[in-house]
Design brief:
By secondary structure, this protein is mainly alpha-helical. It contains 6 helices and 3 strands, in the order αββααααβα.
Length: about 170
């Protein structure tokens, strides 16, 4: 039983670290884009996670905007809440159904969508005159995703190894 509690604490610590990196990923920019010629930058602007999906909404690409919004903000928050409740031992109605739904959605993890989004933004902003550079927010957000996936993996193993109650 002690081994199971150790796993629970490790998963909780990893989950809290992931949440911290997730919040920091919102505070720091993903990209720095600007206009320049050669080594000289004329105008510079920063792109944040929140402005990345707004960019697509403003351009009329609502589907991509909602996809980004869901997989980089809404789904991770739902997953954080679900994992915290699971690791704290709270039972939710239809917990098995929620876990299954999260497992299916997790196949399209936010890291994949995030990487595609960064590449799309980077390609849209990169040319001979328009220059873009990855910033700290990209790394922070990617680390939060990896830690969230790790915590989710540990929690899944704990649930799978849980003995069934005797009748």
């Amino acid at each position: 039983m002690k081994h199971k509690n150790d796993r629970r604490w490790i998963a909780l610590i990893v989950l809290i670290a992931s949440l911290i990196f997730f919040i920091l990923g919102f505070m720091y920019p993903l990209l720095q884009s600007g206009f320049g010629i050669g080594p000289f930058t004329i105008k510079s602007d920063y792109v944040y996670i929140s402005t990345s999906f707004r960019y697509f909404f403003d351009k009329g690409e609502v589907f991509i905007g909602f996809l980004l919004l869901f997989f980089t903000i809404i789904f991770p928050i739902i997953k954080y809440v679900f994992l915290f409740l699971t690791l704290l031992g709270r039972k939710m109605p239809r917990q098995g159904a929620v876990a299954t739904a999260l497992e299916i959605i997790n196949k399209w993890s936010m890291l994949d969508v995030f990487v595609v989004a960064v590449l799309i933004l980077n390609m849209k902003f990169d040319s001979d005159i328009i220059v873009s550079k990855l910033e700290a927010g990209t790394t922070l957000f990617a680390v939060s995703v990896l830690l969230l996936m790790t915590s989710s993996f540990i929690a899944k193993k704990m649930i799978a190894n849980k003995p069934e109650p005797e009748k």
